[in-house]
Protein: Bifunctional aminodeoxychorismate synthase component I/aminotransferase
Organism: Leptospira noumeaensis
Amino acid sequence: MIQTNLVTWESFEEEYRNTGGFLFEDSLSIPGYTICDWYFELHEEVQIFYSKKENLSESITNNLSKLDEFRKEGYFPCGALFFELGYFFIEGLDLDSSGLEEGTPLLHYTIYKQKKRIQYPNPNHTQRDQSAKQNIDILWTKDTYKAKWEKTKDALLLGESYELNLCFPISLSVEGDLFSYYQSLKSKQKTKYSAFYPFKDKRILSFSPELFFEVKGENIQTEPMKGTILRGTTSKQDEENKNTLLSSAKERAENVMITDLYRNDLGRIAKQGTVQVTDLFLIKGLETVWQMVSKVEAKLKDPFQWFPILKALFPSGSVIGAPKRRSFELLREFEGYNRGLYTGALFVSEMLDGLPWIRSSVTIRTIDFRNEKNIWIGNYGVGSGITVLSDAEAEYEECLAKLKFISNPNLPPFEILETMRFGHGKYFLKDLHLERMEETAIRMGFPFSKEKAEASLNLDHNPSLNEDVFRIRFLLNERGEFRLESFPFTKPKIRQRIRLGIASWPVDSNDLFLYHKTTNRSFYLKMLEECKAKSIDDCVLFDRDGRILETNIRNLFLKKGKFWFTPTLETGGLPGVFREALLRKGWVKETELFQSDLIDADEILVGNSLRGFERVELIL
């Protein structure tokens, strides 16, 4: 039985900074919160490095046995397995002929005396120290990558491997507090296997979305991850990207190969007939990418021990390829560097209700920092699976996509927003508003319940609202909580024409918030201030290629001949629900429109679900 205590962020931060220890965290399962397994009070710390003078085989085996013994005695062994330890565990390879340099790290573990599980609210931007400065250096150019990719492809065509996970290094330097930096990155990459692991003059920050294995008693579960594509900006593009990944022959072939490799590996340590694939081709959404995941489970034929488990599984086939031994050898040759902790593993272990409970993540999206003159220098890696169906350009872009959660700025705090008109006991276009809110929630990773939304919009308890017309602000936060604000709304009897100008500069089409209605409207507010300075009511936004999009608070409609048109908004702009209703009825058509179309239009209207159509006076 696992007991979880709820604490405030402030109390947790203060206590952790005083106590330290290993944090193994799930910031995905409960929106807005982190479930933290906190291991602390150091008993023993051990590091094993490559050395020609030492009997490493005996040392590694004995230390793995110590991990089992400490766990049975009630301690909490936690640690890190470095990729180069594969020379010890992969059948047919050995450390003596590895060619590793003296001092190459192989294994690091810490024995803790205590552990507690807590849940704390994720800190907002005002609670996190934002002063850390980072610098990112991509160590392979695209040309370097392509040259190594060609060698990789040649090996695949010769049949030396079915798939190879080609990786390259990235260097990071950070000035500032690494614990705050960790919390900042965690807000951009919410996963079930985040970790903050401090020891001596080093720090490991991990944001891995991939479970290596989990053991509970005799049950073992693995979740190989293979297949990645960027999230889209619009809800439509995001769904298209998800479906592209799901239907990709190349990505599915990779996933099947690695899933089969895991089945074979588990078969070496499992009871006969218990290995089964419980899920295949699951698509999971992170903030910046979609990932393809499968699940393989089994029952262990013997009680858990570290040595046989790692002998069968380490390193994860998802970060090497198949077959494992030859793929490992080829990658060491082609890559030409030590991966270090990248694509190794982190683990925590304990006894729970008298049974072993061990969890290990594959160390992707992981930074291994060392301190040099008060600057933290970090090693990070990115990679992707190469098959005969691969394209060099696409693979390089996939690798860079896995860097985005570090390079992208932190999103400002925001809520998802719908502005609705309520009158005579009804919401205008309510279903379309809820549909759009749900699409935005999916893209932003917010939980959404239509039943809770409907209940929150029920105004039967306030009959006074049924007598007049109101502007309703309906908001959803990251924890899935709805709230409603109401304001009287009166349309003028004589409508003035909207004085409409042209924006002074193009929009940034990469700005996610241009495509989704949220409380983060800083760009629109800035543009409206400029409109006010020009004595106009609103302005037409446009992209870098001159395509017109929308105005700051309205969608745009142009009549040319007998037909009405509206901009496509594929490069920026909020698809209003009023616009969507007109499109579904076939009253308007989407098309690319430019400023010249605006000038030549027979008629111009703007509109939204609150105000309906409004006529325009174009000010050029």
The domain at 416-488 is CATH 3.30.470.10 (D-amino Acid Aminotransferase; Chain A, domain 1). The longest helix spans residues 249-267.
